[in-house]
Amino acid sequence: MAHPSQLGFQDAASPVMEELIHFHDHTLMIVFLISALVLYVITAMVSTKLTNKYILDSQEIEIVWTILPAIILIMIALPSLRILYLMDEINDPHLTIKAMGHQWYWSYEYTDYEDLGFDSYMIQTQDLTPGQFRLLETDHRMVVPMESPVRVLVSAEDVLHSWAVPALGVKMDAVPGRLNQTAFIISRPGIYYGQCSEICGANHSFMPIVVEAVPLEHFEAWSSSMLEEA
After folding, report:
1. No. of H helices and E strands in the chain?
2. For residue 91, what pLDDT is reported?
3. How many whole angstroms separate alpha carbon 229 and alpha carbon 113?
4. Which of 48, 133, 199, 221 has a Cα-to-Cα distance from 33 of 20 to 30 A?
5. Shortest CA distance to 206 belongs to which of 214, 196, 215?
């Protein structure tokens, strides 16, 4: 998860987030190169008293500074489109979960099971145990199996919400009367935190999202215990 004074992204926990971080680094290097070139040209133009007549009127240099930006844009656009289609791809999910946004909590329904669902409320500060994070912990976590494709159907019951978990590279708007879907594969076991990312009222800051990824056998044991409690 994020830590104080962090400048970069959180560590990627899904293949899509890894691709997003690689694309960010790729684009940032292009931005650095362009910035360095422009700074050098400005410095050279300001600091020298010499004039090159070929720069004042040159067909060749105009061709270069027209074609070069087009090539740079293609170098950015192609990997961007590839990741865009990867993020939209949902192949044979092993598990489907419906996440409903409410004012101000989330409810989860495991649609592959007959009666497995629960509400997820933020734990109040005075009720936190040592090691838990303020404004991020919930009384019920969304437990999923690791290394398995998981589809999340996202909607809302009252106003606009947004289901977002940065470490997974997932952010999907929850719109009343509309069913959106997203998918992810978690690469390793762990606990991943997110928050509602759409301003939804007075307690918008107090409806966190906690996703816990566990091995498949642990997930089966957890689902069995939840069904017994129900």
Report:
1. 4, 10
2. 83
3. 14
4. 48
5. 196
Residue 105, SS3 per DSSP:
strand
Structure tokens belonging to residue 129: 């145990």
Whole-structure pTM value? 0.86
Where does the pLDDT of residue 230 fall: very low under 50, low under 70, confident under 90, or very high at 90 and above? low
What is the torsional sign of CA 27, 149, 226, 159?
positive
Tokens of 220: 């089966």
Domain 95-229 fold is: Immunoglobulin-like (2.60.40)
Does residue 48 sit in helix, strand or coil? coil
- DSSP 8-state assignment for residue 1: -
DSSP-derived secondary structure letter, 122: B
pLDDT in tens, 163-216: 999 999 999 999 999 999 999 999 999 999 999 999 999 999 999 999 999 999
- What is the chain's length? 230
Q: How far apart are CA 185 and CA 15, in angstroms?
A: 7
HSE of 58 in the Cβ direction (CA atoms, 13 Å)?
Answer: 12
Type of residue numbered 217:
E
Neighbour count for residue 103 (Cβ, 10 Å): 15
Short-list 110, 181, 187, 170, CA closest to 143? 110
Q: Answer whether 206's CB lies under 8 Å from 103's CB.
A: no
Q: Which residue carries 């762990």 as its tokens?
A: 190
Average pLDDT over residues 144-154: 95
CB atoms within 10 A of CB 184: 27
